[in-house]
Every structure is written in C-alpha cells, then in structure tokens.
Write a structure and sequence with these properties.
With 268 residues, the chain is mainly alpha-helical. It has helices spanning 2-20, 24-35, 40-64, 70-94, 109-129, 147-164, 169-178, 184-208, 215-236, 241-263, and strands at residues 98-102, 105-108. A two-stranded antiparallel ribbon has the order 1-2.
Length: 268
C-alpha cells in the first residue's frame, strides 16, 4: 500500500517540475524517506536520478517549444557541476555519522540531512509565497548576463544539489530571470536543463562509488514522474503560474515544518 501511495505521489513531482520548473526534489526526498522508508542519505542519491531523468524529459519538451536558453544553462552549469562533484565526492563522506550528542540525545547524520532539507523547504516556500513586484513585459527584455553573480549562484546551487539531492529550481529560476534577463517561461525550461545536468552528474558520482540502487523501483518511480512532467508542461499553458506557485508554496511550508518537527521535537 505504501508503494502505491508513493507512486501516486510521484506524479506530483513531475507536475511540479513541469509547471514551475522546481520543487521536484523537495517532494521526492520526503516521499522516499517517509513513504518508501529509505534512509535519508540514499534518498538523496535516488532523488538525483529521478529528478535528473524527469527534468531532462521536461527540458526536451521545453526545447521543442524554443523555451530553453542553452547559453545561460551552460554559464550556470559550469560552476554548479564542479560544486556537485566536490560535494558528493568529498563533503558528504566527510560528514560524521554522529554530529553531536547530549546525554541520551544523539544527533545523527540522517537527522542532520533531513533537518537541513526541511530548512531548505521552508526557504523555498517563502520564495514561492512572496509576491514579486512586476518587472514589466519580460518577453521584450534582452538577455544581459551578470557573470560573477551567475557563477556564485551556480556554485551555491551545486552544493545544495550535491548535499541534499535537490536540484535547486527555486534558486535557479530567480537567478535566470534577474541575472540573465530571461522571460519566466524560458527560465523554467532553462532551469530544467540545469537541474537535469546537475542531478545526473551527482548520481553518476554515486554510481561510480559503488552505491547499490533498486533499479526497478527507480524505473517505475521515474516513469510516473516523467508522465507528470508532461502533464505539468501542458497545464502550464493553461494555468496562471503566478496563482499556482503561492498555493504550492504553502503546501511546501507545511511539509517543511512537519519534517523539521518530526526530526527534532517529535524524534523518538
């Protein structure tokens, strides 16, 4: 029954990516941990594969609609890829299994990962809920790249992708709109390409390290998420993203608070 629920929820991962260009990992990791029962660390590895494959399928769809800026994707991906590799190769293994202990309270690595992930969810939800001032007709705006800030933002996103298995769409899209001057729909398509590149590279690193994967489960999960992203891409043409994004943000906020409480106050 848990697997049926998990696969049903996996469709939401794809729909989220297709509609707003982000939120895939924010949903994937909790589903893997709390519905399928996988550990926090292996869930970040699974998330890299699932979100990477799904985002790539979405990027192909957006590219066919001429809504992917390959130059901006490459500029963002170069520092991000380096950060993903360094994080998965060196930083993750360096994190101790026990972060600290106070008496009978032991704060372990899985709790640390999920706590940071919950904080990321809350931060992402705030950016989704907050109303942004209109910047005029963005479709008429010429691309103007702020190379230094794009490099910094790419590196930060790479660290998040490597450590949490999160593609970082909520960081990528504002960067593409504000720092590269992309229209919103083009930013969504370009974000999917960046997420796909980052996630699949991170997964490749885990694969080369000999991590064992349940390929049948990954295949089924990814099949549902890919179907979801095509549905989300189609809905994006009919639904106003400015109205949908805050609603999704409130859902993510509630999820983030729940996970934070479950991994700290309610941890037994």
């Amino acid at each position: 029954m848990n697997e049926i629920i998990g696969y049903a929820l996996s469709v939401l991962v794809g729909i989220s990516l297709g509609l707003i260009g982000g939120g895939g990992s924010i949903l994937t990791v909790p589903i893997l941990v709390y519905v399928f029962g996988y550990g926090a660390e292996i869930s970040t590895s699974y998330s890299l594969f699932i979100v990477g494959i799904t985002a790539m399928a979405g990027a192909v769809k957006y590219y066919s609609d001429d809504l992917v800026n390959v130059k901006a994707a490459l500029l963002f991906s170069l520092p991000s890829l380096t950060a993903v590799f360094v994080t998965r190769k060196y930083l993750m293994p360096a994190v101790p299994e026990e972060i600290f202990s106070i008496g009978n309270i032991h704060y372990l690595k899985p709790m640390f990962i999920m706590t940071i992930f919950a904080a990321l969810m809350i931060a992402a939800s705030v950016s989704m809920i907050r109303k942004k001032k209109s910047r005029g007709n963005s479709t008429e705006k010429k691309n103007s790249y702020n190379y230094i800030l794009i490099f910094i933002q790419g590196a930060v996103t790479g660290i998040l992708t490597g450590f949490l298995g999160a593609g970082g769409g909520f960081l990528i899209i504002p960067a593409l709109v504000l720092l590269a001057g992309l229209p919103m729909k083009e930013a969504v398509g370009t974000s999917l390409l960046i997420i796909a590149i980052n996630s699949l590279l991170g997964f490749t690193g885990d694969l080369s390290a000999g991590v064992h994967f349940n390929w049948i489960m990954l295949g089924i999960f990814s099949l549902f998420t890919v179907s979801g992203i095509f549905a989300g891409s189609s809905l994006a043409k009919k639904i106003n993203g400015d109205k949908l994004k805050p609603a999704f943000g409130w859902f993510i906020l509630i999820m983030g608070i729940f996970i934070l409480l479950k991994e700290t106050v309610l941890k037994t």
